[in-house]
Amino acid sequence: MQIKKEEITIEPGHSFTVFSPRLKNFFFWHYHPEFELVYVEAVAGIRHVGKNISSFDQSDLVFIGSNIPHLNFDYGLEVEYKQIVVQFKEHFLRDLIIDTPEFSQICALFQRASMGLSFSGTTKELVVSKLQEVQETESFQSLLILLDILQLLASSKEVQELNTEDTSVKLFLKDKIRMGTIYNYIHRNFNLKPDVNVIASSVSLSTPAFCRYFKKQTDMTFTDFVIQYRITQAKTMLLNDLTVSEVAYAVGLESLSYFNKVFKKITGETPTEFKKKHRRN
Hints:
The protein starts with a strand and ends with a helix. The longest helix is centred in the middle third of the chain and has 17 residues, at 139-155. The chain is built from eleven helices and nine strands. The mean pLDDT is 87. The strands form two sheets. The protein has a six-stranded antiparallel β-sheet with strand order 2-7-4-5-8-9. It is of the alpha+beta class. The protein has two domains: 4-161, Jelly Rolls; 176-280, Homeodomain-like (Arc Repressor Mutant, subunit A). Helix 2 crosses helix 4, helix 3 (121-136) runs antiparallel to helix 4 (139-155) and helix 6 crosses helix 7. Helices cover 44% and strands 19% of the residues. It has helices at residues 92-97, 104-112, 121-136, 139-155, 179-189, 196-202, 207-218, 222-238, 244-250, 256-267, 271-280; strands at 4-5, 16-19, 29-31, 35-49, 52-64, 70-71, 82-88, 117-119, 159-161. A hairpin with a 2-residue loop joins strand 4 and strand 5.
C-alpha cells in the first residue's frame, strides 16, 4: 500500500484513453507520467492530490499533472457514484500542441496542472457534458471534443489550485511509510476515537515523529484530517434520512452543539441547512 507507479497502456493509434474505473474498495495511492482529467459524481467524497486533502459535494472535476501522487477519487465511497477518467499520453503536448501558437492557453494549463486544478460552476457542467460525448464518439471526433474541453479549462476562471507548490513524485519517492495503513485505520475508526499513538505504532514511528510525518505529507494535522473525514461521512448520512443527532453520534461527535459547530466551520452551513438544500436539489 505504498505509493505505486501506475503503468498505463494507451491503445496504438490513440493519444489518450477514456474509461470509468470502479475502485471504491481499493486504496490506490499512485502516480504516473500521463496527465489525467477526472470527473466523479457522488453525494460527498474526499480528494487527495499531492499534499492537498479536501472534500467535495455532489461532484468533482480535477486536472492532475504528470507524476503528481493522488488517491483514487472513489476510495471508500459507500454511495452510488459515476466516474469518467481521461488519461493523456506522456508526450501529448510535445507531439500535438506545444509548437502551435493557438494552443498557448492549453500549454499553460498543462504547466499549472502540477498544482492539481479543481474546476467548478459552469465550466464543470460544460466539461461533463462533453466528456460524455467523448465516450460515445469515434476516435478523431473525440480528439476534437477533447481539445475543446482543454480550451474550456484553460480559459476558465472557475478554478482552484489544490497545492501551493509542485508536488510531483520526486518529493514522495523517499517516503517509506504506508499511507494506506493510515487511511484504512481512519476509515475503520472514524466513528470511534482514532488514537494517534496506535496508528503511529502501527507504522513504526514514535508519536511525535508520526505527527511531523503526517503534517509534512498532507499539510494537515492528524486530528484535523480525522475531523474532516468525519464531516465528509456525515454529509452522506444526512442525505440518507438520518436525523442530525443520529449522524452526530454515528460519526463519533456525540455533542450535538459541537457537531453543529464543526460542520458549519468546515462546510459553511449547519447540518440542517446542508440537508435541506441538497435534498431539495
